[in-house]
């Protein structure tokens, strides 16, 4: 698995977009969940970059944050984030990008881009919410009477935003994917 300069550049761009998306709106918090644009960018990374490079870009983002750069929601970072209830969402971004990319790699139709985007969003919610519930129950300070249902109720607030943004990602990604493929092919030919 050899990465070309264009691959490294694209992975870096999506890692940077995740950092921006994490903090653009993250001052709004519901329960313990910051409202961000991270789901959108992780879905878009998979749709545009494909499974391998999309997952690499999200891994780079996670590693930068764990190393201490304030790229996670609410300008947080550091290895201590592993113990935060929302860390499952950060981990899920890698899986989201990989799965959305895999779906599109099998069949790159407009319908598959849309389906992949919604599947990616669902993966993000399932993995992140289950991690949050486990963290709140096992090592974080859960509010009095905190239940599994309450964890999912907290996720209702960002859900409409993430559905809309995932659909938007699924609609704009085919064109971006085609444009990037043409640009990447041109770049690779001129570099040879």
Q: Tell me the number of helical segments per DSSP (H or I, 4 or more residues long).
A: 7
Q: How does the helix and strand content classify structurally?
A: mainly alpha
- The coarse silhouette is globular
Mean pLDDT: 91
Order of helices and strands: HEEHHHHHH
Proportion in β-strands: under 5%
Strand order of the largest sheet: 1-2
Spatial separation of the terminal alpha carbons? 18 Å
The major beta sheet can be summarized as: 2 strands, antiparallel
Low-confidence stretches: none
| Cα-based radius of gyration, to the nearest Å | 17 Å
Portion of residues in helices?
over 70%
Tell how many strands the DSSP assignment holds.
2
Describe the secondary structure blueprint for this structure.
Blueprint: H1 5-23, E1 29-30, E2 33-34, H2 38-49, H3 51-66, H4 87-106, H5 110-138, H6 148-154, H7 159-191
Antiparallel strand pairs: 1-2
């Amino acid at each position: 698995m050899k990465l070309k300069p264009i691959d490294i550049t694209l992975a870096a761009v999506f890692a940077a977009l995740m950092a921006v998306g994490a903090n653009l709106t993250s001052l709004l918090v519901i329960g313990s969940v910051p409202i961000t644009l991270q789901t959108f960018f992780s879905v878009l990374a998979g749709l545009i970059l494909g499974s391998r490079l999309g997952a690499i870009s999200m891994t780079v983002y996670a590693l930068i944050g764990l190393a201490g750069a304030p790229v996670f929601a609410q300008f947080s970072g550091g290895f201590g984030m592993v113990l935060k209830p929302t860390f499952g969402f950060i981990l899920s971004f890698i899986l989201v990008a990989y799965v959305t990319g895999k779906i599109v790699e099998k069949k790159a139709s407009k319908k598959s881009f849309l389906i992949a985007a919604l599947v990616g969003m669902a993966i993000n919610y399932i993995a992140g919410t289950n991690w949050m519930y486990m963290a709140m129950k096992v090592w974080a300070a859960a509010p009095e009477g905190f239940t599994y249902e309450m964890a999912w109720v907290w996720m209702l607030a960002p859900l409409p935003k993430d559905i809309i943004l995932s659909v938007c990602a699924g609609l704009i990604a085919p064109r971006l994917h085609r444009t990037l493929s043409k640009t990447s092919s041109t770049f690779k030919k001129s570099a040879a």
